[in-house]
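Give me the fold.
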Amino acid sequence: MPTHSEKRRVPYTPDQMYQLVADIERYPEFLPWTSACRVRSRSPLPEGGGEVVEADLVISFKVFRERFGSRITLRPEARTIDVEYLDGPFKYLKNHWYFSENEDGSATVDFFVDFEFKNILLQRLIGLVFNEAMQRVVRAFERRAEALYGRGDPAMV
């Protein structure tokens, strides 16, 4: 049952970071082990101001290749993204993002993920490299922000 929680201050605005993470269709371009993304559906939130996206991601790791479905709730005004597991190789998966603004305009990214695979072999394999894998994922988002928005303002961190 790997769990990872992290807060990172970055030299980009909360809206920039929100847009980067909300753009799930681009994940295969930069996110480690993500080989494909397919959006199943998009619908507005009943209360307005956001949307619910159902999507499949294909994760490839060593000899394993798995597809999983998730429901992503995007709330741009609250700067939150919540991910719920729908189907695939997990027993469960929970993921949450929150983007807050610092006094200087920079963002603090609050990231949380908790999951467990159904396959005990896959669960043991990811357990061996989990911390390194999460660090690679975080670095991939940081590099993506730099590629999209430049180096950012160093005074903002």
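The two ends are 32 Å apart (CA to CA).
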